[in-house]
């Protein structure tokens, strides 16, 4: 019995010793695997540097392309100010801080307004949005007044149909690129275009062109002392008032000057050598940058009657879009 007990105890001790050896062998690979995992997850822990070594090595590391780009962009950043110092431009957009003010929020949809869309169903109705009935009444009244004064009994009163025909002939001449072409050639039976002769006679066209007016000539002298644009002021203002009612500009609006070529007699004709036409009438225009729609316009008439120079030119064009 004692020999069997001794053999059993020896066998039990061997089994216990074998289990402990196995646990040690298994635990060692686990430690190695944890070390390898740490190396992959955190490469910075793979090596240890002294503080001085790290500073020396960071000083000699060559700059990357990204760092060079950041340095270059930071060196080119700058601002420019206007002459009066009230307006500043920057090469980089300003970072947005908080919510935009209500004045900077666009609340209208860019494009034709509802007022314009609901009133257009054909070409003629679209044309009449720009040449409205109040404008036509002024032109008809003043043209008939001048026609009776010049031609007396020979003058036939001009009506709306005649005015539309006259404007249509002018537009058609532009479509045919007839600038500089004599009217006699346009109405010529052999080489001319039949549509001109079918619309009106050449004599009628010359008579209307002779007396067409946009104001009362008898009272123009007094009004011109205060306004150099007195000859067309009423029609011009009514036409400019219509422009913002028909189209909503987008977020990008351009305010700039435009020289309309003109070499006739005009007290505010400008000479601008850097423009292609050089001579003409300067107009400040606020236009939608995407569609080029003229949203507001202002004619530059030169110095004011008092003799002082006009300042802040073009502000009236851009003020309505703020």
TrEMBL record:
Compositionally skewed regions (Polar residues) per UniProt: 65-79, 89-105
Domain PiggyBac transposable element-derived protein: residue ranges: 125-312
Name of a matching Pfam family: DDE_Tnp_1_7
Source domain of life: Eukaryota
PANTHER family: DUAL SPECIFICITY PHOSPHATASE 26 (PTHR46599:SF6), PIGGYBAC TRANSPOSABLE ELEMENT-DERIVED PROTEIN 4 (PTHR46599)
Native source organism of the sequence: Eleginops maclovinus
High-level lineage: Eukaryota, Metazoa, Chordata, Craniata, Vertebrata
Compositionally biased region (Acidic residues): 20-39, 49-58
Chain intervals for the UniProt region annotation (Disordered): 1-105
Entry protein name: PiggyBac transposable element-derived protein domain-containing protein
